[in-house]
Amino acid sequence: LKGPSVQTSAKLQTSAARRAQFSSPFTPFARDLPIAPELAPVSGKNGVDVYDVDIKEGLAEILPGFETPIYGYEGVYPGPTIRARKGRPAIVRQHNQLTFDSNVHLHGGYVPAAHDGHPMDVIAPGASFDYTYPNEQDAAFLWYHDHAHGRTARTLYYGLVGTYLLHDEREEELELPQGEYDVPLVLADHAFNKDGSFRYAENVDLGFRGDTMLVNGAVSPRMAVQRRIYRLRFLNASNARSYELRLGNSRQMLQIASDGGLLEAPVARSSFPLHPAERIEVLIDFRSFKPGSEIVLQNVAADAGTTKSVMRFDVVDGGGAEEARMPRGRMRTLEKLPAPNATHRWDLSLLTQGGVQWQIANRGFDPNRIDVSTRLGTSELWQWHNPSNRVHPMHLHGMLYRVVERSSGVVHPGERGWKDTVGVLPGEDVTVQPWFVPYEGRYVFHCHSLEHGDKAMMLQLEVTK
Ligand code: C2O
Ligand code: CU
């Protein structure tokens, strides 16, 4: 898979003057934060929202004066945002207009196995598939992306990523910010060729690392914020890079949610880690800032190697009366898990004989083998054991888990809610407790460092009645 080949307009790409301006990394804060378009349903009959999406090539304006060829849902990067409502099912009709197999995984969703986007369930070029999403779980920041086996590192890198915001009543009771004050932020590191196209170099050990930070498809953008409360939803859609996000002067953020929705209580944070595929939602109260204040969001992870400036918030005057509120105390009660009835130890390791393969419990992905079987409604302890020198963000499809223990120290309160991906650090053991609900069937679990997942770091779980 070489990457998108759609023709760019000669006028933009051949200008020598533009080329002269090309230098990487690029000037931060030069562009306003783009907001992905919201997808409108084509029908809302019988209480079901039906959406129509074309998976196709497109051109994105990422660098000034250049068009970057992408693969995109509806031909845009990031793909359109779907806003769904708990209790109201959605059908997303995906048309594959690419020249190769594709499929769609709703990451973090309680989704029946046949609609989960298992790596072997693909949509052939020219074909379509109706993904049915029951939307029965609590509000959460989900996302959707390609999951065809063996090439997600490239398809996600080239743009097949979108956000799916599942809302519910609880958020309204809590008076959390809504609409334009509720902002998904898709973070990804990229690199560029001289013609403005995405540069990709495979590195199956370290994973791809880019030198340029994109937020919603713009290089370290600026976002005008009113003196109000904002709900910012961070998604790490990078291939392999982990972030440690911090506001200038370590100003406080109030974490309200993790992968699987609201925490039991908000957690004040001056910085937080975000590993590939993880989501963290924070509230930032800009009311105390003077108009004209500029607050930079930085990546202070030790292995930076990319622009340190992720984006900037520029405080402006304006905005009506504040309708949102900073929550205090309890936001929800997390369901109590059944006592675990088994413990599995999953060693994470690299096999280098006869080609590179990443393994879980000394095995690589085999779609014809079930690696663990469980009963619907039960739970287990899964210990990720990482003797390697890489971070492995371990993800389970179709269900959620709780982080029980980290050998490196305590589990942070911001990580005690529902999760579907957990960053297992080099040399660390992390124990999680998945709850095998709500559907039976075959699901995968894998490393979300995409080059690792593509190189077989993936096993299969079967849930039976
Ligand atoms: Cu977001 Cu199987 O992945
Ligand atoms: Cu990995």
From TrEMBL:
Domain Plastocyanin-like: 60-169, 183-287, 357-464
Segments crossing the lipid bilayer: none
Keywords from the named record: Metal-binding, Oxidoreductase
GO MF, any single term: copper ion binding
Keyword Oxidoreductase: yes
Top-level taxon of origin: Bacteria
One Pfam family this sequence matches: Cu-oxidase_2
Keyword Protease: no
InterPro entries listed in its UniProt record: Cu-oxidase-like_N, Cu-oxidase_2nd, Cu-oxidase_C, Cu-oxidase_fam, Cu_oxidase_Cu_BS, Cupredoxin
Similarity section: Belongs to the multicopper oxidase family.
UniProt name for this protein: Multicopper oxidase domain-containing protein
Species lineage: Bacteria, Bacillati, Actinomycetota, Thermoleophilia, Solirubrobacterales
